[in-house]
Structure prediction request, 396 residues.
Amino acid sequence: MSGVVHVNPYSAGWLRKGFPWVYPKEVHGRRPRKGQRVDLQDADGTYLGTGIADDGWIAVRVLRHDDGPVDRDWLFGVLDRALGLRQQLFGPDTTGYRICNAENDGLPGIRIDWWSHYGVVILDTPSLAGLVDGVAAWLTDRLNARGVYLCYRPDSRDDRKVADFSPPPGLVSGVAASSDVTVLERGLRLRARPSDGPDVGVYSDMRDVRAWLEPHWGGTTVLNTFAYTGAFSVAAAVNGASDVVTVDLAGPYLERAEDNFRANDLDPGMHRFIESDTFDVLDRFRRSGETFDRIILDPPSFSRTKDGRIWNSKKDMPRLVASAARVASDNGWLVVCSNRGELSPRDFRGLIHKGIAKAGRKGQEIYWGGQASDFPWLTTFPEGRYLKVGVFRVFS
Prediction:
């Protein structure tokens, strides 16, 4: 049974523009129970949409702005439209991609990633769990999914713990993958682990950035920091980089990076893999005088080093860029990335420019990019445009 939520005029105005959220302070009266389907109305009782209520930092996620039903046909229609875009974008040389990008594809709080023959359904909140069976049925019907996994990705503003979420993460339909799954990214072979969703080992939102860099690796020396499982390292080595150094604080990720090298018929022994803090490695190269033609800086939004230091983008990004600029060869490139949606492109550029100047270098922005095309952002939802990537040529 649906409830009714009355919203204030500010929220009503945004809902009429297609905005997919209602915040708690915009709700008149008592908030509905989490997971309840609700109709949204303004103070005069005018219908504004239908959504799912939550008890977190968002009060209602809006599924429809018209007065149609929220049923299987509606869900399949939303997902068919999302899949249609991906079928236009990708051929057989790309088998790992995002099928549905939450609010930006009409399913607020629900992301669906596809890894060869396995689907991973990523929820922002357990309040949306009532839609999971329908999504799994669609993945099986439309894509013959061998298995579908459920996982959660709560917002940093949500103080609830995934361990308390129900249903628990894990396989929800089909059979589990018996090992890592090989997926293709424009012909590059990368190993994904669907059971570890959402972080399966491949960040496909960086695909377009790797594609732009593809012609520019040949004969270069490359330093890939915060490397995770090494997709940038593999792309560089496959496309002719002469020396690739892959750095991450986590040894298991580096082992997976080496596995990705082998998957592409590359000998990991011909390159270097360093388990260490990025700042320590950059300082070591500065002291030794070793420089690099291409340096990738893709730090996480949040991380904690072994000695307890916490990464903060606004505080640490200029220091990181400066440290990298000091070990960049003359006319070398810094590839600097941030997935913090709340950090504006203007502020992000400012942090980078500050870091280059701190190193006593000059810089030129030669490329600006963002998330790949299977991560579209809705024009009425600018929050969906989160990834920022700049390539900067540095010189003395």
